[in-house]
Amino acid sequence: MSAFKEFPIRWGMVIDIDKCTGCGACTVACNKENNIAPQPQQLERIAGKGFPTRFKKLEWLTVYELSNGVQGSGHDTAYLPRPCMQCGMPSCVSVCPATATDKNENGGIVSQIYPRCFGCRYCMASCPYHARVFNWDQPVYPDGMEKQLTPNVSVRSRGVVEKCNFCHHRWMYAKDAARVAGEDPNALPEDAYIPACAEACPTGAIYFGDVKNPEHKVYELIHSPYTFRLLERLGTDPQVYYMSKREWVRRQGDNYLENEAGPVAHGNGGLHG
C-alpha cells in the first residue's frame, strides 16, 4: 500500500481521556459482544474460602494507565483505552501471507478473516499498537455462558489472530435495518451503529461515527486542538483519536525523548514539525 486511500465512509472513534475513569466497562462489553472466551490454562485461584476463580481473558480492547512521572503532589494519572486503530495505512494488511486481513473498501475497517489465518503472527509483529492477540487455546466457556454468546459473531478456534473490528456485525445489522425501513444504508444516522465499548462507557468517554460526515459528533471532535493520535509519525493514519486538555497526556501520544526533536500536536490530530 503505497498511498493513503479515501473511503466514502470512514468510521472512527474519539476517546476523551479526561472522561475515562479506567473502570474497564468497555473491555467487559467488548469481551461479551465478541464472544471472547476465558483462557483455560490461565485460570487463577485466589486464596480464601471457596477459592473464587478469576478469569484472565484475551482482550481486543485494553485499558492502559498513564502517568506524568511526577512524584508527590504533582503526580497525575490518566487511562487510555486502546482498541484496534483501524489504520488508513495498516501495516498488518501488507505483511499477511494468507490475505487473512483486509481494509474494508466502504468504512475503512480493518477486517480479520479467521478461516484464512494460519497463525504466523506476522500481523502482530507489524502492528505498532499491539492491537492484535493470538488465540492459544480452544474456546471453553463456563457452564451457561455459551447461552449468552452473540449469534452474529463467530467463535474463533485455537491458532488464529484476533482483533477489534468496531463490532462490524452491528454495522451490518444497522444497514439491514435501514434497507427494511426504505432508507439509505450508506447514510446511517449517528446513533444507528455504535460499538459495544462506546455503548457501555458510563462516562460517555467514547464517541463513534463517520469522521467524514459533518452531522456526526466525531467530525467536530477530530478538529479540536486537544485531539491527537498515537504514533502518528509512523504514517499509519489511525482512525482512533484521543482527546485531553492535559499537555503531558497529548505528548505521550508519540512519547518523544527530551533530547529528540518531535512534532507538535495540532488541529485534527495532525502533527507538524
Automatic annotation (TrEMBL):
4Fe-4S ferredoxin-type domain residues are 11-41, 75-106, 108-137
What InterPro entries does this protein's entry cite?
A: 4Fe4S_Fe-S-bd, 4Fe4S_Fe_S_CS, ET_IronSulfur_Cluster-Binding
- SUPFAM superfamilies assigned to the protein according to its UniProt record, in alphabetical order: 4Fe-4S ferredoxins (SSF54862)
Which GO-annotated molecular functions does the record name? 4 iron, 4 sulfur cluster binding; metal ion binding
Keywords of the record: 4Fe-4S, Iron, Iron-sulfur, Metal-binding
Question: Which region is the signal sequence?
Answer: none
Lineage, top-rank taxon, reads Bacteria
CDD domains assigned to the protein according to its UniProt record, in alphabetical order: PsrB
PANTHER family on file: PROTEIN NRFC (PTHR43177), PROTEIN NRFC HOMOLOG (PTHR43177:SF3)
Protein name per its UniProtKB record: Molybdopterin-containing oxidoreductase family iron-sulfur binding subunit
